Amino acid sequence: MVGLYTRYRHQFLAWALRKYNLSEEDGYDIFQDAVIAFYENVKGGKIHQLNYTIKTYLFAIAKNLLLNKLKYNQRFKDHPDEFDHLINETHFENDIIVNEKNQFVTAHLEKLGEPCHSILKLFYYDSFSMESIATKLDYKNKDVVKSQKLRCIKELRKALVKAFG
């Protein structure tokens, strides 16, 4: 793959820089992504027989990546406030979702009862080690705590899947 990259990189860059006024850095990135995509197509069995030269196929991938990048850049260049709004809206929505999940986890942690509540709180919130939890809660050893913690996590996970899908 390295040979493929070095063999055609300069030809692609010369063409892309001249035709699309692309920065050299973007050109390198796009061509590298094209070589990776080519490799993944070969490795994944998507290419059984090429009707074109390797260079043509590789340049077609690179050109598609280049055009997608230009289209993306142009869209947000024409409407920068739309992009800012999209980021802020997505960020706000993500904050709400995270907050709802945190509230659910906290509420369900209370419902789990003992020993789950204590073990998970000590481990995740208070950063206790398994040995420290075993000592504090009077367990035989850290392995017993670890097993109990896994059962508690499994129960908590079932509740999360049920609530959030």
Helix-strand layout with pairing:
Elements: H1 2-20, H2 24-43, H3 54-78, H4 80-112, H5 116-125, H6 130-136, H7 142-164
| Proportion in β-strands | under 5%
Which sheet architecture does the biggest sheet show?
Answer: none
**Oligomer class:** single chain
Structural domains: how many: 2
Structure description:
The protein is mainly alpha-helical and 165 residues long. It folds into two domains: 2-78, no CATH class; 82-164, Arc Repressor Mutant, subunit A (Orthogonal Bundle). The chain is 83% helix and 0% strand. It contains seven helices and no strands. The protein has helices at 2-20, 24-43, 54-78, 80-112, 116-125, 130-136, 142-164. Helix 4 (80-112) crosses helix 7. The longest helix has 33 residues, at 80-112. The chain is elongated, with a radius of gyration of 27 Å. Residues 85-93 have low confidence and may be disordered. This is Sigma-70 family RNA polymerase sigma factor. Belongs to the sigma-70 factor family. ECF subfamily. InterPro entries: RNA_pol_sigma-70-like, RNA_pol_sigma-70_dom, RNA_pol_sigma_r2, RNA_pol_sigma_r3/r4-like, WH-like_DNA-bd_sf. It comes from Agaribacillus aureus. Keywords: Sigma factor, Transcription, Transcription regulation.
